[in-house]
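Continuing the series of single-chain predictions for the mutant panel. This is the parent chain; the variants come on the following pages.
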Amino acid sequence: MSEEHLARSRMRRRVREFVLALLPPLILGAYARWPGNWGLAYVALVPWALLYTDPARARLGWLSWLGAVWLAQVFLYPQAERFGWFVPGVLATLNFWPWIPCAPLWRAIHRRWPLPRTLSVPLVWTGVEWLRAEWSLSHLDLFPLGASQAPLLPAIQIADLTGVYGVSCLVAASNGLLADALFSWREGARDGGWPAGVRALSRSRRTALCALAVGMAWGGALGYGSWKLGRVETVAGPRVALVQPNVRHKGTNAAGVQLTQLWMTETRVEAGAADLIVWPENAIMANLLREPDYLADLSWIASRKRAWLLAGAMDKPLPGRNTNTAFLVRPDGSIGGRYDKLMLFPGGEYLPLDGWLGRLAPPLQRFVRKLTRRAWGFFPTAIPGDGMRLLELEWEGQRLPFAVLLCVENIYPALPAEAARLGARLFVNITSEGELGGSVQVQLMRLCQLRAVENRTAYVRVGNTGISGVVDPSGRVQRLLVGDEGRLNADAGVLLAQVPLHAGTGPTLYARSRDGFAKGCLIVACALAMLGMARGRKAALSLVTGLCACTAVAPHGAQDPRAALLAGQASLREGRPDRAAALLEIACSAAASCREALEPLTVAWVMSGEPERGILFLESLRKRFPELEAELWERLGMLHEEARDERVALEAYRQAIAREPTSGRYDRLGKLLLSLGWIVEAERVYREARARFPEAPEPVRGLAQALRAGGRSAEALPLLEALVRERPADAEGWLELGRVYLDLGRLDAARGAFEEVLRARPGSVLARLMLARVAIREGRLQAARVRLAEILELEDRLARGRPAGS
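Parent structure:
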């Protein structure tokens, strides 16, 4: 055989390997984009089975395999690109490695054991699915093979015995059977072409036995499912009102989100019509226990509707750290319980490896933080809760324990199973998925169906944009929220429904087994592979990792400090914060121009997502310009606050005050103390500021805020009334006064105060929010609706970088 022919043969083989390795990522990606094509699951693994279970292959082909599973992660989560072009690749790099054992296990088994793929493919795949669920970052694995079968209700009923892994095993076995059939056909076709291959397939006893086994397995599963669907008894449970506001959650529209839900609940839920009202995750995009206005709204609406209210909000248990929390409010307005999210979303709630990068490569850490801020719009600093905690709803004279699953916590089978073992009678999944799109929401609803079957527990799902609904303990979608325009997602609406509770008691076999079926599959697969490797050559894999190289922005143009100052200010107005920061740093080569540059420079660092860079730069300036030390300490406090280093920010503000006290610096320190819930210390700071600066308005407003936070609004009233008499154009003073009037139930006076704010600041979102809250309490719902429309428009303009008054 000529060398040219050998070269062509090698090339054809490599092309064939490349195509077979790439097909499963493409098929799985097609299912992720179009989940209605759930039949794709029956062929998705066949190309990999053909490629990696062939004992005639001389080598595994690590490069093609690693590339294939990395691409599978990219294609399964295409929506990640909405947060930045680099996000899909980064998430895939962090999450693809639990897939890696699949092909080596298949190869090790088939080099030693003449097992049918009908057995080896499901054994390995099911075990690796469990690895993915356990070891992916934040357990982030939305696409177990079995979840695709949720539309086929009888097929998923075995999940109460095996979890979703049993359904995945059946689907993978079908893939293995097809691979076995193709291998049988290939053996005959080598010598006699297609006809001989067909004859060989038809005569293959092994393939026939495999087909019989798979048919019996499916028959048993479907038979069990059909029987179980008629045997699961339910009883009428609590009435729920699911509020789907169809407002995407961003840092710029907190007022619109909260007011939309309040207005929809007031106008669409009759008093006494629901036992439990459910708002989505991030329904309150603020620290609920530190913001009296938001907590007052929740207490008011719960009392008015005579219902329990569950809403997602935040808490800040530690400086610089927050929790994603579900708060349960009683009908009397008090807080009846809380659950802190355990599974934090990478990038959006915490930054993986951030501490490790800070110790190993601080420049790389700063670069990664910058990318994160650009992708999400903020730097995540959430911390997880300390474990699964059930909440209790008082219903029909009894206590009904239920579990809250926040956001993607419904994708991890072990977490709802733990709640079921603790005695949960109901699962409530509140989520915020406006950025992800409909296909992901369909898949997440299917996972809810699987979780309901696995634990025989009713499931309620509420999303800010959908899909929201009620699933019974058999996985049937009992009710779906259809919005005002007839859509399941991206549509506002309220669903009133009664939850069917499982009449039985005690956790299912699956919940008690702690993923025993999947672990058993993995143990058997690993044992077969290890025995096979003991008789053959050992394989090793070396993974090479590299560090990202970061390049600084190189400014061009004038190097004169004054010219650089003017050019930097112009760049900032043009919306080019990176270039503005580089130019304004040049302006700080002289003390005079640096004093003017510090304010726009701080803004530029924040806008470009690089407060850490700013902190390092300002620290260097403190040594060069001692005459600017007070202002530098203040700016350092602002940047540390942006970087969520709030303890350091407190000390920086104190240092600034010690060197050059101003009422503004006292105000920054007091506001930060209030945000941390340190009310007594904040009051002390503001009283000290008021003694030092008796004519300044900031200490008066701040002291009033501290008194309100401590439940002493009546004491704040005379302070603020005196302030606005002396300063009738003080918009912030009128705003605080209106809040105090509202606390005291003086609605007419509150409305007048907030209208004064609007006269001084026509573009104020906050004044409109407060006026809408007053209108809702007064029953003027149309007026509240007008204010809500104005708020949503203004917040949209702010999100697009346009002035609120334009």
